[in-house]
Amino acid sequence: MDFFISTFIKMFFIMTPFFVLSVFLTITNEATLHDKRKLAIKVTFSVMVIALVLLFFGQHIFKIFGITLDAFKIGAGALLFLTAVGLIYGNKDGQKPTDTNLSDLAVVPLALPITIGPGSIGVLLVMGAEFNSFSKLLIGSLAILCAIFLIGTMLYLSSIIEKFIGKNGLLIISKITGLFLAALSAQIMFDGIKGFLGL
């Protein structure tokens, strides 16, 4: 149970849900409630598929490119830190979608790279390599899917959340999320360095 909860919380924060929500609200500013909810479902499904592909095939990617787990932890931690800095200073990857066709925005940019950015990709690959038993892989996958489903629910109810929290509230929460991500990225890098040096 502790493993499920820790994996769930880690993935929820790594995918920067409040930033994703703020971007979603910006993109769908003039859309109808039906279109917003339809897009939220598409984004959620897209993110689930991408996350599971990265999780299950992560080890094969490591083998093909000859990358060690410790090296990838250091790289993923560094990318995640950049994402955290972007959140704190109000920008993530400089993405500002302008396409008026909402359906076309479900996979790119909402799923990739806004919800699953470079940091999230790195962490999913690391998790895939670390889940060394079937039970861990099953529980970890379920936790990741639950985290994605919760973010999808937030997007689905985005209009209600916006009225309740307000845009300033979302901005504040996004910055707090950035601080948590910065700490998490540092821990991932330290673990990689520790393993690399054999400490």
Automatic annotation (TrEMBL):
Source species: Aliarcobacter cibarius
Transmembrane regions listed in the UniProt entry: 6-27, 39-59, 71-90, 102-125, 137-157, 169-190
InterPro entries according to UniProt: Multi_antbiot-R_MarC
Keywords: Cell membrane, Membrane, Transmembrane, Transmembrane helix
Similarity comment: Belongs to the UPF0056 (MarC) family.
Localization of this protein: Cell membrane
Keyword Cell membrane: yes
UniProt name for this protein: UPF0056 membrane protein
